[in-house]
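Section 3.1: Structural characterization of target chains.
Under the original work plan, the team committed to producing a structural model for every single-chain target entering the pipeline before any wet-lab resources were allocated. The record below documents one such target. The sequence was received from the expression subgroup and is listed exactly as submitted; it comprises 173 residues.
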Amino acid sequence: MHLGDKELEEAFVKAPEKYLQAVYDRYSSSLFRFLYRFTANNQSSEEIMHDIFLELLKERFKSSENGTLKSWLFTVAKNRGLNYRKRSARETKEDISSISSDRNLEEETIQLSLLSRLKEVEINLPNDLKETWGLRKRGHDYQEIAKTLAIPVGTVKSRFSRLVELLRKEFES
């Protein structure tokens, strides 16, 4: 005996345990496809669908006063699907934020390590490079450094060339 949607709904309201399988057989595949549009995940769609049928069995759907059984199933599915999307979006945002903060921490750690190495190298510079570099850090240009140290501008440039080469060797290793 084949029941139409209305007859199946009426039979389900009277004897839910007896007709649950028939309701499941009738609507599960279309409900699954509907949920898949929200989740794009077979397992999640399946889990949500089974939760909906469990809720149905717990007599959440009483009668056709609030619409048909089919409309109830798809309304619940739509709400669960939207909740799934919101939760997934929030989790994705949290994951991205977590990754971003991990990268920031890693970058900050690397930067601090490099600064520490630079300070160590600065301490161990030969005196002529140390005083030239010290003036440059205070904002002096080549002309001002040359005038302050009473050396030619070419010598200032030469010192910076040596300094750059020394730093390159130090930080390449």
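The CA atoms of residues 103 and 109 lie 10 Å apart.
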